[in-house]
Amino acid sequence: MPPLTLLIFGAGIGALAGGNYGAAYGALIGLAAGLVIMIVLIWVLMKARNR
């Protein structure tokens, strides 16, 4: 999955999950979660490459 798609997907999930708090708040949480997942994936890939 391209990083941008992952971010948009995360924002969409966040908007759905955070529907009770408001779509904008949920989207922010989704974007943050998407960024964290992306950073973790990149870190794991770098670790795997260094072996």
TrEMBL record:
It comes from the Bacteria. The chain crosses the membrane at residues 27-46. Keywords: Membrane, Transmembrane, Transmembrane helix. This is Chromate transport protein ChrA. The lineage of its organism: Bacteria, Pseudomonadati, Pseudomonadota, Alphaproteobacteria, Hyphomicrobiales.
